[in-house]
Structures
1.
Amino acid sequence: MHQSDQIFVGGGGAEYGEGQFVRLDYANRHGLIAGATGTGKTVTLQILAEGFSKMGVPVFLSDVKGDLSGLSRAGSAAHKLHGTFLERAEKIGVLDSYAYEAFPVTFWDMFGKDGHPVRTTVAEMGPLLLSRLLELTEAQEGVLNIAFRVADEQGLALFDLKDLQALLVWLGEARKDLSLRYGNISVASIGAIQRRLLVLENQGGTELFGEPALELADLFHVTPEGYGQINILSADKLMASPRLYATFLLWLLSELFESLPEVGDPDKPKLVFFFDEAHLLFDDAPKALVDKVEQVARLIRSKGVGVYFCTQNPDDVPEDILGQLGNRIQHALRAYTARDRKALKLAAQTYRDNPDLDIETAIREVGVGEAITSFLQRKGIPGMAQRTLIRPPSSQLGPVSPMERAETLAYSPVSGKYDTRLDRKSAYEVLKARAEKAAAEAEAAEAAEEEAPALEREYRAARRYSGTRVTRSTSRRSAREQDFGTAMTEMVMKELTGTTGRRMVRGILGGLFKGR
């Protein structure tokens, strides 16, 4: 049922009305897949990924339960749902064209265990998203912005977390001079940021930052047969750190938005991005971040990227963003509480009315594998809400085995490219060299000051026992004695302040990178 310009989603038959399709020329107008747990959202995401791949459109999606890895393998008649799939295919009129099929898949994993490592740099993440990730206050975010500004002005590359940690230490030591230009730099704020960085390290955030960083071009592969590559981010372990998960996906969206050229209204998307568990992006999000997401959602379609939010309830997505999601698939919502009933009513009101369908009742009553759908039609007009039986998947339903995953990784188009971490010269190494140089200079100056009194004592002893008296005028002698007294006073002051200060510098800066 796939046609050259649209993807068959389901429907068909007297009970469900006409077949429902996603038009490729409106697929970049974004979409929503919503529904309670266990109602079939994952299978719907799977069949959409299949459809886009078959049309030559690369896909990026996150696999939060491990089930979507089955896209890399063809379905089987031995599967327990094989009979159900055939019955459904017959019911919606696609039995003759229904066949099992595998799709080209690239596995990614932030931790590098179930896929190719996927990384970015601290500099690419930027202070806004990093502040969101670290849950910083406004004052702490201000200090982090100063750190990024200073790093940029002084040519200090920020690749990984140790670069940022070293920069913050240096910022604290130089805060008096820097505060005059950039504003107050509080030691307490720096300490709070360092503590949050430590928490991020403990959550595995160290693996996210570093090199080689992900090249966006590697998400756009198309096979020689014309199939778009399906990029699957293994997120089952990543979900243990939900803010890290949400921030990474938002960073990826932002990078796509910043990097891709304008293409207007393409015949089909250049990439379709599925944001699963989308509520994690908006939970307790500051207004600046929500505004950023809204900007990206509004403008990234002109870059040829379609974004599909997957969540349990449409109410999880802010209204301004929800209004930009033109293609919608709503699985069942259960109205057990007053809040649930309100959310159900609001969800029904977002669809174009169908005189033959009570939308609110239908959303509550649709079964597993069924949904209320509405897709953009000609001239971008929303289609009427339609009760739809979702087509069965062609790829394997459920996860692949570790051996099958390893085989897919071995034949990946980016095999070996990201496996070995790089550690180029960056802020950490530059600041370490500065610290070592300052410590060496302090030690040399201290040694010179300690040597000066000994030389003076030897000079006096030599005059005492030489038997020669040098006659000078009283005024010149007084001046000499005064000069000598002044010099001795300054030397003592240096011993009391300068030497101690240099020892502290050598102790702090010299020990800063100890054990790194």
2.
Amino acid sequence: MRKWMTDFIYSFPFQLLILHLRSNLLLLATWLLLGMMVTGDLGGKFGLRYLFLSPEYMGEVGFMSFFYVGIGFGALVMSWNLTSYLLSAYRFSFLASLARPFTKFAFNNLIVPLCFAALFLFCQIRFGLYYELGHLSQVLWNSAGFMAGFITLVLIISVYFNFTNKDIFSLLKIEKPQSLGGAIVPGKEDIPIIEDIKLNRNQWRVDTYLNESFRPRIVRSVAHYDARLLLRVFRQNHINVLIVQLFTLVILVLLGALMDQPAFRLPTGASVFLLASVVIAIGGAISYWFNKWRITAIIVLMIVINQVTRFDIFHHKNKAYGMDYGTAPAVYDADTLQSVCNEETIMSDRLATLEILEKWKQKVSKPGKGKPKMVFFCVSGGGLKAATWATQVLQSAGKFTDGQFLEHTMLISGASGGMMGTTYFRELVLRQKNGENTDPYDPIHVQNISKDLLNPISFTIVTNDLFLPWATFEQGGYSYKKDRGYIFEKTLNENTGYVLDKTIGDYRQPEREAVIPMVFITPSIVNDGRRLVISSQPVSYMMVEPAGVNVPHSVQVDAVDFGWLFAPQGADNLRFTTALRMNATYPYVLPNVYLPSDPPVEVLDAGFRDNFGLKSATRFIHVFKDWIQENTGGVVFVVVRAFDRQREIQSSKNQGVFETILNPLEIAFKVMSLQDYEHDNNLGFIYDLLGREHFEIIRFTYHPSEELKDSPISFYLTRREREDLVRAIGSPESLESLERLRQVLE
């Protein structure tokens, strides 16, 4: 028993694992982070595991998509082995005496990759069966694709090493070996110079190793070999390490340059594995060259990168496509904003909107039916879940009311994915009214809006944005850099048949004629917390509460009319999909947009100020309350939510010291709950303003099934999530809301 334990402890695979735990924690951390992504422990709320467990290629999840993920995993495994060999081979000089030393090293260094592969396949099979509702045969076929990709990549690199690597036996045939000079590892105390190898210094005890057949073999002494030849074997292998790692980096950059071609948009899981292989290579290089100073070197490198990227040439700022950044920037300061909030300007914009209200009234009024109800459609954010749910609600509401729902809707407002689905449906209705052969109620549109956006975004981050975007494209006569913002819009247009490929100005006339409802897109301004109101109509009255006009300087300007501020910079030419993207810019997932102003206005997701569009709706009603009371039978708030407002109350009992320290920060992550309370106050204000008979709230809330209650908010939907959303519109609660809506609009 003792001999068995000794043989196990001093086997080459086990000793390599111990060495990694002692000296290569930076490399192991990469595996740990990837494992946490695959299991959902890291980035679970954003659906990061979908990138690995349900990868899409050319719009499909199948053998080929998993094959490419396997290719990426193979590159990661080879980078792991190459880097480990670079850092650790000199401690095992017996390798140089073996035929194909790197191959044998790699076979003995597979404990960590094999554990990860087992974890990946377990999660992939479970995810495929449970969330994608796949048949076992198809799920296993996908697993086979992953393994086939892995084996293919390993074989390709193995063939390269077979023709380029030399072992001690081939070098012994050379009569006059080249002078080596120097050592294979820089440093002071731990240089494995020739004498080290002769005297067996810096060596780890290894009694047995595994050959290519995974059979144990006894380690033989290398004392009788010329130490210079041993060093030459290691050095020659190190050159191959560098070549393979540089090739991986070049592949990543080339894939980013070809992002416009769907065939070159590899599944993001594959790209993440490729990036991880580069990270391991860089970490290994730093450890190789700086040895015990590696942590200091990493810190210094991070500081240098941070300082260098302050310069504009290295600092990429995403721009609003269609706008002119070459003209004089708009002045953005408190005085400028206050100057537009004068009675004359606001009255002019109010009169323009009153004309729209009159046309809306003419459109929906019916003889003998009394005054019409005015609908305000307020939709929440929440990725593709919100987009799909909003589209389904609009289709069902239209069917239940014989198409009258959207006719009665005066204003659409909201955030993120909900606005993507809503504006998509509005555009389909507009096309139908213009005589096109389009059916807005076709279920295919729910399928279109729910198509994957996460993989293209993540792919572009990994292959392009991390390496400083350089490729450009033209929009409206202006040039912009291609980044994940660009690919988001391109993919959204591809998914929806390019029906949203318009400018903000293209919607001015249809809204002005009340053919379709007005839309307010309201991203948040990072600089000062105000809301940016993007509309095809002049809406300066949305910038401040009515009291701010009647009593100047009594309240602050808390919103900005985009069309007014950026008129000289081409506000009308803003690409509509860019406005939607600005409205859905969650940090890191999409890039913050910098507008052409001085100082540059930086915007992100509308959800940080108003995730449901209720602020916009309540202010609009406040501004036009007199007209609404006189000409309508009241207002109806249709509030569409992709998640329930009822949340479990968390306890702070039995928290550890670090949890207690961080506990006050949790309030920053509960923005949605705070908004619920604030929106209730706004609705209460409207109730007091209009009265009970003129105020109605109808809610459509998506309640996921028990199995999906913790599913993430993401730009990807699994098959189970799609089917659950379809089921939800037929729930008793949803049907009751639809019936109420039908009765209200009769």
3.
Amino acid sequence: MIKTDILVIGSGIAGLTFAIKMATKRPDLTITVLTKTVERESNTRYAQGGVAAVWNEETDTFKKHIEDTLDAGDGLCDEEIVQIVVEEGPDRVQDIIDWGARFDRGKDKKDYDLGREGGHSENRILHYKDLTGWEMQRTLADKAATISNIEILEHYFAIDLITQHHLGYTVTRVTPNIECFGVYVLNKKTGEIETILAKSTIVATGGAGQIYKNTTNPVIATGDGIAMVYRAKGRLSNMEFVQFHPTGLYNPAGENPAFLISEAVRGYGGILKSKDGEEFMKQYDRRGSLAPRDIVARAIDKEMKMRGEEFMCLDCRHLDKEGFLAHFPTIYDKCKSIGIDAMEDMIPVTPACHYMCGGIWTNEMGQSSINNLYACGECTYSGLHGANRLASNSLLEAMVFAHRIHLDLLEKIDDLEINENIPGWHTRGTMEPKEMVLITQSMKELKDIMSYYVGIVRSNVRLKRANDRLGILYRETEELYNSTAISPQLCELRNLITIAYLVTRSASMRRESRGLHYTTDFPNKLAFIENSVL
């Protein structure tokens, strides 16, 4: 049994930002950070484009950023949350700059080189070449390493949150005052299941892109935090809104994750075209290739289906080569590795699952519906993104809510205690699974179901078929879970099935088309509809 003052599950931008701020303010507290792989592997690391913030006050305003966010969110953003994130955003970006983040500057080396992406009315994207997430993850990891009361435990896989349920009480979705006492974790190095108790727990586990075959998310993006909160009877919201990035690199050889062609490339002047060179986005939106992601992804999907093509193209041949190579060296090199010179050839692109806009419901301070359990980052539904996330608002959201959680906990932590009356993990099964193919094949089936039936375009028939197939997978996996020894692969499969069910169920409940959720049975928006809550 491990005891810690504060437990953080996840070592990306949300988790480490919180840990650094809390540990700095309260050096007397122990802050334990769990990661199921290594510290520097997270969704954050794969973010290319940058972080959006009102930086140039001569040309940009909070009002413009708020309006852009609300427009992208298609009527479902919480306007109070949008205002909070936009107005507090520049200070949070300054925090990470102060910790050592090296965002690109212009030719004069004085002002930051602000990029522009789809849905933004102004240039406001701070970036580090096309490796912004990598640079921010490096900064946070280096900073955390200098703080003695932060302990990072690598290769610890969180299995379940500990609540009153584990003390023998019946806990349902209407039970008041559900409380989190810590988490059961699998120590991947020893194979043992350990108990970690804490006064307060923060879930910062990222997204769940691996429910689809084609995703820009790393293989660790299996929705573990969202699934754990759901099993603990916590509140989730807006799970139907899954963002597909319009421009994943089409690689006929296949790869997981799909390589992302950053939206910043279109902000730099790249134009979406068909294979024969026809520019098609203007017929879908006056903003053309710089329309919000939901519009662009649906347009590409439609063009591919109408033309019978496997991909559309991003044309960068007209752009300044020296400038392109300076801004997008990783993208250029990746394209070259599969035989494409972006300065001479159009880049083949196809939509890929990119971001979960729904997740664990939180209030304005990052508190979930479960007492002493906070959440921030992609695993949450804070109200910022609504029906569709505006490009480069995700890193901003993570930093703002990590800061707010630390402020809230500073006022409460001394009144909280560790509940030591917690039983150890009850081992369900002891056998090793005889055939790993049972897990790997179920994973393949899951991705096929979601990709074919719960993708960019949906229908009642597709959603029902997905729900039926997922039910079979769920029963088979639960039987395996209850009869065999716990493994990370089995837990990830179980979590992904849970996420897939939640996305499908939520999509079935929303009887309209809005933002990222488009259904052929209800192609129009409803004037008034509440956020779906599970």
4.
Amino acid sequence: MAQSLPETIVRRTLIACSLSALALLAVGAVVPASGQPEEDPAEAKTVRMARATWDTGWFQAEVYRLLLLRLGYRVEGPVTMENPDFYRAVAAGEVDLWVNGWFPTHDGLIEEDFVERVGTQVDAGALQGYFVDAATAGAHGITNLGDLADPEVAALFDLDADGRADLIGCETGWTCSHIIQHHLEAFGLDATVEQVQGDYSPLIAETIARFEAGQPVLYYTWTPNWTVGELVPGRDVVWLETPFPSLPPDQSAFLDQTSILGIPGCANDPCLVGWPPNDIRAVANSGFLEANPAVRRLLEQVVIPLGDISEQNAHMVRDHGDPEDIRQHAQEWVARNSGVVSAWIEAADPGAVALDTGVGTDTVGAGGVLQVAARTLPPFVIYDQGTYNGFEVDLVKLIAAHLGMTVEIYAVDTVAKQVDDIHRGVADVGLGGVAITGPREEAIDFSLPLLDTGLTIMIPTSGSQAVWDRISVFLSAIWGSDLPWLLVVFAVAVLIAAHLIWWLERTHNPDFATPYGRGIWDSFYWSVVTMSTVGYGDKVARGRLGRLFALIWIALGTLVFASFTAAIASSLAVNELRGAIDGPADLPGHRIATVHDSAGYDYLTGLGVGPIVVHGVDHAYDLLAQGEVDAVVYDAPVLQFHVARQGQGRVTTVGPLFEKVQYGLMVSEDDIALREEIDLALLDLIESGAYKQIHDRWFGGFG
């Protein structure tokens, strides 16, 4: 019998309360593993630290946090702040410092009487500018942004067929977007070039995909940034110079700094990049520095190589950049540079003692608009020509409608960025195939699971390629056995035996000719057939010593040939044991690809199967298509989506799902009400059948 409305409300309330209790219990059970004793807050001074909104600067912030801990300070934060908010707060003494200052770009934000720039983390290494792929530049002689005034050149980069080149630029509201627009106007390019604006992360990801497909690309970027590790200046792309120095009026004082020496991938040296180089520096409240001279001395010394920052940024984006990943990157950097770090600490304060601390955060409740930070991962989130779709996108839109809210989605590169945006209240929800794991539960809260699935195995479909793969595996098995060495022993033994029998029989046996050239061939023939068949009888030893040697050779030959036969049989047996892959039990002994630091990686290493590790599932698809691996093990929804779409007819999944994987929406730990509303909305969608429709639309009945 159907439940009444009050009964339904009570049931759902109990479910929500239970879920909340479990979440709070899990959070309360987390014990910091710092290895540091509890400290009296009165015994340590406190640094209130901030960081910028761009996650490519969070590695440096974490390094400085570790250094301040080594110096004996308790660190609150770092909290993420917009540029104007930080400079106002640090001048007012509401925060003490950050290490993400870009100068001269931030010069206009500083209140000189209350705020100081301290030290130089990166000296003139923060560069900005325009890039084009090297192939197109070389083929058409493109070296300058002004070359795009030619409609034929501009047409090479026209993505939307409107007659103008599409320059992938900055997000609306970023300072760089205004400078790009100024350049287009100043250089008379309005008629042939347009700045494409939107979420920078998916736009630049699409740009890289076009480059990898051999298509022309035109875009803006900066250093340090992960993009310069993917499209390397001087190798993959080249800088575009500007026709002449030009900056908006508020930055005109830096016009003489827009020409820079030693730029790889630029047609000229110095290169007129059109943007002044920036120093990355720490910025702190003057009163705080006066009261804490040890911090000033530390900040004055710290230098982080630009190459290290760029490498970490690329690693962070490749491996999805969970908060613990960024912390680990910083810890590893400090460990690798322990000598210079110790010198910094010693110079700042010889008596410094390391302390541990927690991290403070700000949260803001949700409003009428559900702000969603999305990380692209098909089929969960797909970014296509400025629009978002996918399984989780469809689901979150229905959940928002259930709550009477509208949805605004923007893209980020890393889980760490999603977590931080949620903590700061910039985003209400994070999505993009984020698996619910223990470490993530410590950093953020999750909704009820959106999808309860597991790992699966993807292999090539049967066909000529599969047959050739089996032959290749067989040959590889033989080459990896003792058979090659036995062949060498066999050849050397036959040559020695041939020379001995010829020397013993040459003077009295017409079966072995006296001239060496002819006789050694007859002897070689005798040596081989005697070993393999115990002789045909057409050539036999006649002398006493020759017959004695023949008996010995027959006995040795039998042993060598038996070993040769056994090696072949062993290789065939190994190949047969490898057989086809039909499920998890068949994985050992095969070449298996999986994604770094994924559930598949954990499973395979635990199984004792040393996987071939890639940093993106697309790379695993390529390895499988090229026959370099036998199978791919990864999250079932991702592989099943690929099988049903791009890989249709070429690959298939086999065996049952294994190793449970659950995905959820990330929400703030402090916004329990929003999480409960999302959970109840999700239950409604499941009960109404709407969830099943979305599920079947994206997974085609496979999941």
